[in-house]
Amino acid sequence: MIEAVGLTKRYGAKTAVHNLNFRVRPGAVTGFLGPNGSGKSTTMRMILGLDTPTAGRVTIGGRPFRELPNAARQVGALIDAKAVHGGRSAYHHLLSLAQLAGIPRSRVDEVLGVVGLHGVAKQRSRGFSLGMGQRLGIAAALLGDPQVLLFDEPVNGLDPEGILWVRNLMKRLAAEGRTVFVSSHLMSEMALTADHLIVIGRGQLLADMSVQDFIAANSAGFARVRTPDTEPEGREKLTAALVEAGGQVLPEPDGALRVTGLELPRISDVAHDTDVRLWELSPHQASLEEAYMRMTQGAVDYRSTHDPRAGFQPPAAPGYAVQGGPAPVPQGWNGPAGYPVLPGEQPNPYAQQQPVAAPQPPQAPQAPLPPQHLAAPATPPQPPAGAPAVPAAPSAPADLTKRDTEDAR
Amino acid sequence: MTTPTTPQHPVPPQGAPQQPGQAPQQPGQAPQQPGQAPAQPYWPGQAGPGGPGGYVSPVPVRAAHLGDAVVAEWTKIRSLRSTMWTLGTMLVTVIGLGLTWSLLYSNSDEVLSADNVLGVGAVGVLLGMIPVLTLGVLTISSEYGTGLVRTTLTACPSRSRVLTAKAIVLGSLAFVTTLVATLLVAMISSALLSDRITEDPTTGEWFKATVGVSLYVALAGLLALAVGTLLRHSAGAITTMLGLVLFPPLLSLFLQSDAVEKIGEVLLKYSIPMQLFTLYGAEIDSGPSGWDALWIMLALAAAATAGAHLALNKRDA
After folding, report:
1. Cβ B156–A27 below 8 Å, yes or no?
2. Which residues of A are less than 8 Å from B47 in CB distance?
3. Which of A86, B115, B143, B186 has a CB 3.0–4.6 Å from the CB of B148, allowing a cystine?
């Protein structure tokens, strides 16, 4: 049982984790979800006593980690697949950890077998792939045969076979009555592995519920309705009629309608009553991934911005730039909206807020143009000076986060 | 979920592919009693009597202590090539330079004092100390550099225990290796130069030039370990230690004018090379003499180690 009460961690002005309250129960796999930089690893480190909370506390079986009588026998953790000395063999790495915790030497061979690294046990771990590193980290976590297990992104870098193996391992460990706490940023992975979910974003708790509840609460089904493209008025007529019948209607990008709150037969009846033909009427289930993205959308730290490729644009006519006239708007492949959505690709909901940042680039190409410096050296360079600073602003918090976490390690 | 014959196992043994050698249990075959569980040493484990309340490992739990940490640190230090390289370089430098100096003196016509006979090893030890400092720094900073320190501190949350174990292992290793090298050099030089001296070195001088010097080098290694813990960065800490050894005597060369002469003198007298030479019997006016150098280094290392313990316990790993 892991219990966090008012857990808070600040690095200077940046709050990495804010007032987290949760319980991780034994006998189940608990998924710990959140976007990059949401505080998952910081929370993990605080559970393991590596970082001291700024406020609040987190206990394992009622005690802080550093006060456990024999921590390695009660808690096993995979924090970072790269947290090994590359010059040491896998065997010696595990042996030293076993000796440190007073675990018999024979256990090292056992866990090497469990993770399938027997064949490379005597090789220096520097040459290990990320997947092998993960396996070595999992071996270290299992070394003490502990009651509580923490895994930080255990499937990173694993091949499909390895991912399946980790999934089954987690489930089996939980079935043995252990507490299994697994962090991930992949909802799809957690949906298959976890029994319970704890979702955080920007260091705050967003959800703490069972996977079933999460699915029920977040992935309401909807119907896709398409009217003939040749009769746009039919679409409007149907929309009005469906709303009147009590449904919620949202237009889809391809011209179809997304209808929620009405059963399929009812939609068909309404269409029939309003004399609109249907080209499509299909049931859909919003994916868990989508629900998770919707939930964490406001809490994403690292958001991609539009790449204007301004540096590759042929220099505009120098006269325009000097006079501060409207510089040509750099066009991406798909205009300022960003990369085109490929057929079959899920539109990225994170990218929807992008146009906020997108209008900045038009100013940027002015700065590197040499004619400006030649023509007007004394002019206070307001727009060019401002231009590089403004696009930098949205990324600044992200940079801070990154640096803070790096430093903390 | 489980066969009726194995009520204590929430997971059938068949579900444990990691034990290929173990034959799958036949349902009708010898029902496994809970008491037989130790026959499968550690895996798969049993759910505790409390059912889903928790898991109890079949491996008996015993508390870990400093001895375990020392054994673990010994495994760590001997399983790295950098240990072999640094200590190997130290041995080659100390013995090689000691031998060379002895040969050069034996071919000259100089008459030597008792101090000189043992003192031929001093330059070798001074240079040979540098790899030991490197090893001292790397013992902890390589763990920070690779992130291993987080794994270590998860396996043993008592940070002071980890640092103490490192100090014990590093200190002993540095002491023993240096003792072997200095003893060898002292024996070589006294054998080669026996016909050239007016009086034999006393037992006290021998002891100071071998055990004393080895203790001094080991303490310098511990100082490096503490500096590595404080700085957590290999290159930074190694540079700091090199600067500590080489910078004061270098600086004193530039402090010759009357105003700053005193500072220059003190810097030179108490510099690490000079301290080392006094252990070999070099005499400095109103400077350290006898075993003073060792006490100075002991105080330095103790202070730095205390700071390292404080910092390690206070900081986030």
Report:
1. no
2. 176-177
3. B143
| Contact between chains at A82 and B72 (C-beta distance less than 8 A) | no
DSSP-H helix ranges across A221-366: 232-244, 264-273, 288-296, 318-322
Rounded to the nearest 10 degrees, the angle between the axes of helix B292-314 and helix B213-231 is: 20
Q: Which residue of A has its CA nearest to B158?
A: A66
pTM beyond 0.80: no
d(CA A348, CA A297): 11
A237 Cβ under 8 Å from any chain B Cβ: no
Q: Tell me the sheet residues that pair with A8.
A: A55
Report pLDDT digits (tens) over A281-313: 988 876 667 777 777 776 666 777 777 777 776
Shortest alpha-carbon distance between residue B236 and chain A (Å) = 15
Test A51 with B47 for CB contact under 8 angstroms: no
| Rounded Cα distance, A12 and A16, in Å | 10
Q: What is the pLDDT of residues B122-171, one digit of tens each?
A: 999 999 999 999 999 999 999 999 999 999 999 999 999 999 999 999 99
**How far is the alpha carbon of A113 from chain B, nearest alpha carbon, in Å?**
6
CATH architecture of A2-217: 3-Layer(aba) Sandwich (3.40)
Residue whose tokens read 């399946």: A164
The answer to whether B313 contacts chain A (CB < 8 Å) is: no
Kindly list the residues from chain B whose CB atom is less than 8 angstroms away from the CB atom of residue A59.
none
CA distances from A292 to A33, A217, A259, A289, B103 (A): 9, 11, 20, 5, 78
> For residue A262, what is the DSSP state?
S
> Is the dihedral angle over the CA atoms A76, A81, A82, A88 positive or is it negative?
positive
ipTM > 0.90?
no
In the CATH hierarchy, which fold is given to the domain comprising A220-285?
Alpha-Beta Plaits (3.30.70)
Strand, coil or helix: what is B159? helix
CA distance B42 to chain A (A): 7
Domain boundaries defined on chain A: 2-217, 220-285, 304-408
**Residue extents of the structural domains in chain B:** 66-314
Do β-strands B55-56 and B46-47 pair in parallel, antiparallel, or remain unpaired? antiparallel
